[in-house]
Write a structure and sequence with these properties.
There is one protein chain. The protein has about 70 residues and is α+β, with helices and mostly antiparallel strands. The chain has one domain (about 5-60). Helix content is about 40%, strand content about 20%. It has a 3-stranded antiparallel β-sheet. The longest helix is centred in the C-terminal third of the chain and has 13 residues, at about 45-60.
């Protein structure tokens, strides 16, 4: 598992679970946010979580499956 999206109220907490997850986050977010991302202290909306999930899985990462987030195909 490289990334996790954990339900946190109406949003999702983004938590890296591997070095691949951290590296992927570093290529997608500005350096000023890296510490927060690495510590799992970032939350995103449902729609942003879905986009992030799709992008990360297309990039070859494994993302924790959530019953409320499913691939749109």
């Amino acid at each position: 598992m490289d990334l996790r999206l954990l339900a946190d109220g109406l949003s999702y907490r983004l938590t890296p679970n591997s070095i691949h997850g951290i590296l992927w986050l570093q290529t997608h977010f500005e350096s000023q946010h890296w510490d927060l991302l690495a510590d799992g202290r970032v939350t995103v909306s449902r729609s942003d979580a879905e986009v992030l999930w799709q992008d990360a899985t297309k990039g070859g990462l494994t993302v924790a499956p959530l019953p409320t987030l499913s691939p749109s195909r």
